[in-house]
Fold these 2 entries.
Entry 1:
Amino acid sequence: QSEAQAKDPRTAFVHLFEWNWDDIAKECAVIGPMGYAAVQVSPPQESVPGNAWWTRYQPIGYEIVGRSGDRKQFAEMVQECRKHNVDIYVDAVINHMAAGPRNYPAVPYVWNDFHDCFEPIDYGDRGKIQFCDLEGLNDLKTESEYVRDRIANYLNDLVSLGVRGFRIDAAKHIPASDIAAIIDRLPKDIYIFQEVIGAFGEPVSEFEYVGNGDVTEFKYGNVLGSHFKGQSQLKYLRDLRNWQGWLDSSDAIVFTDNHDTQRDRPFSVMSFKDDGARYFIANVFMLAYPYGYPKVMSSFAFEDKDQGRPESGVHSGAECFDGQWICEHRWQGIAAMVKFRNVTSGAFSLDNWWDNGANQIAFSRGDLGFVAINGGSFGMSQRLQTGMPEGTYCNVLSGQRSDFSCSGDRVVVDPSGFADIVLSSTNALAIHRDSKL
Ligand code: LM2
Ligand code: CA
């Protein structure tokens, strides 16, 4: 890898849900060059037995061992990914331990290290949200110094193996000040994002958490879904980044869907289970539009929502696109848009917005990139201001530029920045500085 590549900004990451450490180690050689900044990995700590994917959200201790591999494989993955400039973010399950008797000798935690509210959570009551058992999972006394130290030791152990960031699972169920006290025990340059499902009218708000790091903006996936599935028109997405009541762009983690919403789909969330072309153009929008730090979801196929992952991993028997692992992150257009976001990151502006008053939209990112999305049901043909310097560009969503040839369509930008943009229904086009022929 050249020095220039190593210094490229990296602005999107991927959740390789339920992947093995060995498989992720190999995948980093694929996704590093694609430009992904990091991989969110599944909870690596020991957990209750069983095949359901969610057993890993029931920790029984903080040893690094489980379905994805052991400590040595984990450490090797982190090192291997580092070589490809890909960071590892660990899904940190620290609000609770497994359901069952309140005794975890491996840590150790005993009954006194847990809150003693056994009622179901009442989302109208702050105390109950934060101190009762979430789905019957034993709720840790995160206000106790002893518990904070045990959690911080676990996270610091992962940092010692090279981990660069954490997703704080169930953060809404932990007081923000308890998370702050735990983060205080970690090196200052560790990236933190907190999973808070903000809901209007609830006493615990996502905004309480921004002082600790980034926060998930769950409204984003619903809004993307409703607009790309035709419940509202794409033209209304223009000012999304300034909408009232949303996290600031610099605080927000955004995604079309995540491992939970793709199973219990609230409102209009989309996933790979929807029409692939629609899901694809929604991802194009997410990666082109200047709001938040996007996380690409990479799923496995499932019928039953408890169903565990395929038996073999992508690099150890199974493959992407074989109906087992979906590998959305490798879809040519999604990978191309990760590059688009990196290339255009210098211009965190939104320029030259155009729409047809309905579901055809286009915009540029300064003079670094231009995207057009046709979410309507008929073809699009428009002469549009691209904001780009004169030249012939390769549409990175239909092909790839290599040296001076392009395996896809070409877009000719005239000296005044205009180009003819032609798109079929449910399709998108993108050009950027580095796709110039
Ligand atoms: C999360 N974020 O706040 C995770 O993203 C989500 O995937 C986790 O739930 C949840 N919080 C707890 O960490 C998953 C799954 C649940 C599952 C739990 C614990 O969505 O269905 O609950 O993990 O494994 C399961 C059973 C549930 C049962 C519970 C305790 O589905 O019926 O509740 O175990 O035995 C009595
Ligand atoms: Ca709690």
Entry 2:
Amino acid sequence: TRTHLVTGAASGIGRATVDLLRAQGHAVIGADLKDSDISADLSTAEGRAELVSRARELSGGRLDAVISCAGTAQFDPLTIKVNHFGAVATLEGLRTLLAAGTDPRALVVSSIDSVHPTDPAIVDAALAGDEEAAVAASRAAVDRGEGHLVYSSSKAAISRWIRRSAVTEDWAGAGIPLNAVGPGVVVTPMTRPMLDDPDMLKLVEQSVPMPLHGHARPERIAPLIVWLTSPENTHVTGQVVFVDGGADAVLRGDRT
Ligand code: NAD
């Protein structure tokens, strides 16, 4: 059995992933704001430090996989803090525990929204590792009525961070595949309010067309996450694997 650490473990895609891993007999350390093994707010430096120190205690100093699911979709600078900087802090903070594991693997849940329009000021600041500037750019986007760009920018930034980082000494050099999955619309507490509102639902269907099987349950995303973080995955790295009912193919069909 392997030991996985999953953030965002208390709800939605994270919880479905924890359930599948446990059903397969693996040990899981869950982290979330509450209702999990580790309570940590990944939007703050204290919470990020708490995650790493508690993970070290609970794991005995070694992890076989880290899965970063924690995320929020608020039209607020909080979204860049959690979705990009929280995910980076999770992966970088737990990398030494992973390096001590067996067949170590790492993964972030990004989004199909990473291919939507973004705010380059937010993305560039995030990729430069400048949280203060990324928060300021996010606040500016919210103030001019473009709060939705904070989410797409947070997911574009983390996807690019994955691709850049996967091939470095820290990850490929340490034998650790590092990937993202990019779900389309998944029915979770994050999206439920939008899907229940007919006007919002229309907008969602326009921006994320899913010709195959429609909106997904979180249980449909978990098996891909589990495979990408299993020892069977030896050569997939630096990828954002869309699990989106065809949305990426519709939106970017000519991309090779
Ligand atoms: P969810 O709201 O059910 O789960 C997200 C979890 O993250 C919650 O348990 C929440 O408490 C936790 N979280 C939020 N802020 C946190 C913080 N500051 N510190 C620690 N934990 C925090 O939503 P979900 O749909 O399961 O989302 C999981 C991931 O999947 C997110 O990264 C989301 O952006 C991504 N995603 C979701 C969809 C979708 O349609 N639901 C689509 C694409 C990507």
